[in-house]
Design goal:
By secondary structure, the protein is mainly beta. It is 11% helix and 33% strand.
């Protein structure tokens, strides 16, 4: 019997016609790590437990010792999530159950070894494409797994910076999986840590990961958002909305309000915060209202010197950027996509709640609101 779900799977497999590519490391790539052909069994291994965004797993800002094999495990989870305060439900596809997937952190020259698990409770084949890796469609050609399967991919981190990863199972399934939540980011730190435009060390006290997501939720004849039993059931309607290129929601970390109120990002006056911001599908323009980007790697690549003192920066669709700011005043800061329609009306807003003492030299209300004086 041909069901809608089986037909969808057949279409997916038909779209996966790309052959697996074999990567050959160059001498230049081998410099920060082990020599080409050396036995990787000699390298130390370190298992890392990933953290749910906006938080990031523990890591050293400056590498200790030589390259290592960093082991991660991510489980793909298809599940229904609520994406706004009005109760709109969406059939999401996720890495490790969150939108975005977790931020991974390694150092240049390390090897990333990912165990990717697709439980048999899922309905779709999935894979992963790392923009930071070399060859094999970013790993996508080597990681396609059906429900009930898992795979292990290892690749060498040769380029420092922040990079997007996402599911890319082939053909029309690629954009659908990405805008259904299957994206995240990895940060490859220089072994000696971050540096400013003068080559001086830059350190951060906290790091937060903000993954911006555009959703395309179908509506019924009465204008109400529709609800589906599984991702496959939503496919045809969702693609129709997607092809209009107008998102119904643009949110941070999976839902409008997910990083506000009790979930506001915390900091203190005098603390330096690193913000990693990714957008796997559309361009965006982060802005911290009341603060700045002291140092901004707008393209997210740490071999390039950061820009300084930016008010708003640009994250290209399919990339991740990084910005550092040292908070100077206490209070509530709004961190937004400065397409303010998307920030206010569609949901792309987060808050920082900062503790500390107010500095009147930086800002002071000289005269409080009062009646206009006559004459």
């Amino acid at each position: 019997m041909i069901t809608r779900r089986n037909a969808l799977k057949s279409a997916l497999f038909a779209s996966m016609a790309a052959p697996a590519l074999i990567r050959t490391a160059s001498a230049e790539e081998a410099k920060p790590a082990v020599a080409a052909g050396e036995d990787l069994s000699k390298l130390p291994r370190r298992k890392v437990k990933l953290a749910r965004p906006p938080f990031v797993h523990e890591h050293d800002q400056v590498a200790k010792g030589g390259p290592a094999i960093i082991e991660f495990t991510m489980t793909i989870e298809e599940k229904e999530i609520q994406i706004d305060d009005e109760g709109t439900m969406f059939q999401a596809m996720t890495f490790d159950g969150s939108v975005p997937g977790p931020l991974m952190v390694v150092h240049e020259g390390d090897y990333v070894e990912l165990t990717l698990v697709n439980p048999e409770t899922n309905t779709m084949p999935h894979n992963i494409d790392f923009h930071s890796s070399t060859g094999g469609l970013g790993g996508g050609a080597l990681t396609l797994i059906n429900p009930g399967e898992q795979t292990v991919l290892r690749w060498k981190a040769t380029r420092p910076g922040t990079f997007v990863y996402h599911c890319a199972p082939g053909g029309p399934m690629i954009p659908w999986h990405v805008v259904s939540g299957m994206n995240g980011a990895i940060m490859v730190l220089p072994r000696e840590g971050l540096k400013n435009d003068k080559g001086e060390p830059v350190k951060y006290d906290r790091v937060y990961y903000v993954g911006e997501q555009d959703f395309y939720v179908p509506k019924d004849a009465d204008g109400n958002y529709k609800r589906y039993s599984d991702p496959g059931e939503s496919y045809a309607d969702t693609v129709e909305v997607m092809n209009g290129l107008v998102p119904t929601h643009v949110v941070f970390n999976g839902a409008a309000g997910s990083l506000t109120g009790e979930n506001a990002l915390k900091s203190k006056v005098g603390e330096t915060v690193l913000i990693v911001h990714s957008q796997a599908n559309r361009d965006t323009r982060p802005h911290l209202i009341g603060g700045h980007g002291d140092y901004v790697w707008e393209t997210g690549k740490f071999n390039n010197p950061p820009e300084k003192d930016l008010e708003t920066w640009f994250i290209r669709g399919g990339s991740a950027g990084a910005a550092i700011y040292t908070f100077l005043q206490p209070g509530l800061y709004a961190y937004v996509n400065h397409n303010l329609i998307e920030a206010v009306n569609l949901g792309a807003t987060a808050h920082f709640q900062v503790e500390g003492e107010w500095n009147n030299d930086l800002m002071q209300q000289v005269v409080p609101p009062s009646p206009i004086s006559q004459g």
